[in-house]
Amino acid sequence: MFDTILNFRYIWDTLDIVLVAFIIYYALTMIEGTRALQVLFGLVLLFVLFYLSQGGLFTLNWILGGAVFGIDNTHCRHSFSA
From CA 75, how far away is CA 36, in angstroms rounded? Predict the structure, then answer.
């Protein structure tokens, strides 16, 4: 019964989550209203599109993987050869 109370892992996990949330909040407030926020949103959009393109959008995956991110995806069975 007291094992969960004495287990300090929950405290460290909570502290870790709060610290990461504070860092993200502070970083976003620093770049709020600047062009850096637009760049950040654009990069997030590219990463999301790249992740979604792995489900079957082969041409988009090739363009984002090779041209934008410089990822060598020639090992993929659906990759295009140049």
Answer: 34
Q: What is the pTM of this model?
A: 0.49
- Give the residue ranges of DSSP H helices in 32-80: 35-53, 58-62
Return the pLDDT at 4: 61
pLDDT digits (tens, 9 = 90+) for 35-60: 888 888 888 888 888 888 888 888 87
Residue with tokens 């041409």: 59
For residue 68, what are the contacts with CB-CB under 8 A and spacing of at least 6?
46, 50
The tokens describing 50, both together, are 């790249």
Listed in sequence order, the residues at least 6 apart from 80 whose beta carbon sits closer than 8 Å to its beta carbon are 58, 59, 62
Distance of CA 64 to the CA centre of its chain: 15
